[in-house]
Amino acid sequence: MGDRSNAEPRPGGTPRRVELGLRQNAAQFTLLVVVNALVGGMLGQERTVLPLLGAEEFGITAYTAGLSFILVFGISKAATNYFAGTWSDRFGRKPVLVAGWLVAVPVPLMLIWAPSWTWIIVANVLLGVSQGLTWSTTVVMKIDLVGPDRRGLAMGLNEAAGYAAVAATALATGYVAEAYGLRPEPFFLGIAFAALGLGLSALVVEETREHARLEATGHVARADGKHDHLHGELTNGQVFVQTSFKEPALSSASQAGLVNNLNDGLAWGLFPILFAAAGLSIGEIGVLAALYPAVWGAGQLVTGALSDRWGRKWLIAGGMWLQAVALALIALAESFSLWAVAAVLLGAGTAMVYPTLLASIGDVAHPAWRARAVGVYRLWRDGGFAVGALLAGIVADALGVPAAVWTVAALTAVSGLVVAVRMYETRHRPDVV
């Protein structure tokens, strides 16, 4: 695929050569990796500090109320993911990316100055919209650039950058908060990330929609006949139905993505409170809050590429089951060392799942409607934040935090079973008959 090319006019009339392939687009791909790391940093600024801020500064005692910031984040991000795909096809990828960064600018300022929990809620609505626009668009742009042969690697690099930044920022804000307090210093990082992300996206990132159009002109049906009925243009409604319910691989990926982020919402909102109740310091909580996304981020450098070689299905199913085991260990453990082991296992399981799900969507969805399919998948996946916050809060208020962790562990195990039973292997190698 790497030798296929076309010419796209630049502003001013000079044609830019459009080619598919990681090597051919190395500069823009690397730039998008950096941009997505900044996107992850915007999310990471909240992972350690915000649950503690709700309990200590705003007096939030009920778990359901304390998780409200994750609930609104999940709803706004999920909805925005859907529109991000549609808008990327209609207006281009770059305008959507820049718009996402513009929405992000006030978020750290609102977190710093918030006089009430309502301000925190509104800031997280904006953060969800921003994450939906920016993260979705960087995913689509990388898929556009690399073509079909290195899709798993591309998603591994994208998600690794984002979640490594989540981890690094969660760790840094934990130490800053321990040294200087919960506000304002931990959120200074978010101000810097927003400024850099907006500047790079507006001034240096280039449009990639023509790469998708180039791939579509040479798109070849699979020799095994899988998903031939999905070739060509589909309406928005058809894309939603196929990705959500009808097409076995797409819908299996959507439910697995939802459950994956359901347990991430639990980890984000309740783990710091669970660890604090056990007597851990803010610094130790920061280490645990960072360890899980750090392993998740770094692991994707391996798992994304492995899915190109080994296939998608069993990495996804196995990753969901490993997450379930890790959550069970967190519910049982009572010490920093055991929680650290569980965080590593949870990160490893998520690394197996996260880029592989995105790659499977790219495998099945036709280039003509792939951005919309990614948007629908991410609608379901990030809706898991909202479902997780609501479910975990209700169960924790009724039965305690360990019961909430056990509930999510069981749902995660069942999700892996759905993938094992319903999903077919989407990674088709033409050399394998």
TrEMBL record:
Official protein name in the record: MFS transporter
UniProt KW keywords: Cell membrane, Membrane, Transmembrane, Transmembrane helix, Transport
Species assigned in the record: Nocardioides flavus (ex Wang et al. 2016)
Membrane topology value: Multi-pass membrane protein
Cross-referenced InterPro entries: MFS, MFS_dom, MFS_trans_sf, MFS_Transporters, Sugar_transporter_CS
Lineage per the UniProt record: Bacteria, Bacillati, Actinomycetota, Actinomycetes, Propionibacteriales
Pfam families reported in the protein's UniProt record: MFS_1 (PF07690)
Signal peptide: none
Residues spanning the membrane: 26-43, 63-84, 96-113, 119-140, 160-181, 187-205, 314-332, 338-358, 405-424
The Major facilitator superfamily (MFS) profile domain, residue ranges: 25-427
Chief place of localization: membrane
Keyword Acetylation recorded: no
PANTHER family to which the protein is assigned, alphabetical: INTEGRAL MEMBRANE TRANSPORT PROTEIN (PTHR23517:SF3), RESISTANCE PROTEIN MDTM, PUTATIVE-RELATED-RELATED (PTHR23517)
PROSITE patterns (alphabetical): MFS, SUGAR_TRANSPORT_1
Cell location: Cell membrane
